Description:
17% strand, transferase activity, alpha/beta, transferase, Polysaccharide pyruvyl transferase family protein, seven-stranded parallel sheet, globular, five-stranded parallel sheet
Amino acid sequence: MTRTAFLGAYGYGNLGDELCLMEAMQAFPGATRHAFSVKPDWTLRCVPGLDGCFADGGQMLALRPQRIVFGGGMFGVPDAFRAWMPWLLQAEAQGAEIHFHNLGVAWLLGDLGWLDRAARGLIARLASFTVRDYLGVERIAEAGFPRLPRISFFPEADILPDFSLADRLLPRGPKLLGLSIIPMPNMRACLAQEAGLVRQVLAEFADHQIVPIVSTVHVDSAAEDDMAGCLDFIRDFLPQATIAAPALLDRGFWHAELTPRRLKGLVARLDVLMTQRKHNAIHAIGAGVRVIGLHPLEDNSLRRTFVGMEHRLPPGSRCLGLLYS
């Protein structure tokens, strides 16, 4: 068995990232498993079986990992490559094998200063290299990486649900519409401009109760507070709707009770999910629940998820892009 260190955007208050960590731990089992996290208590609560966390590259090297798995959420970004590449090179020199796993890859061409000869050599020697979607392959090719990755197609969709919270909170009988909205400025502008279209889409679900699907309450970004996004959306578009599980809009409850698997258990009990958050769409697709993507058309994050998982989309699912000027 192998001592493994996992690198990703962990501890920031995004259950989708910890979901990716759970999948990576299944894909790379080991004798001991440690992960980078900015909030270890959060990550350790969310991810059973994790032995501990480290705060930086120096602490990672002190663990003497035999294997490093670089991935987890939208981690294929210039800032992450630049921050971790020197540490990956040192770990490789100590004998660790390096894997780039299930990466969400951002646009890279604006910042390739980190991709020097040493980084190119490490990438060429990777023990494995996967990205989650077609666009990730294109961006890797555009950036001139010395090898191309395989596509993983969002394997975190197959993490099993935990129904314990759904059993406690959700009523049996009423139809349930899940809502997941990110309160970013571009989304707020889209919803204001395209309010008529959004109401047309919602008309189909007039007899549904609302389940707030909150997967992110970010530690340092109010623009990624899904609880605020959900509350604003309900106020503006569904003020008369019944909220089936109001506890999900209580911050103390959310921080104490939600985990990636419990969130999937909630999503799996829905009749339909309307979401801007891609990992909630992935939960729905993995659970066979109809999903409607709602997102700013200028942002391809959700759209590329639907394209990558097209072969698994439940009937009636679709992705709706919104415009704003």
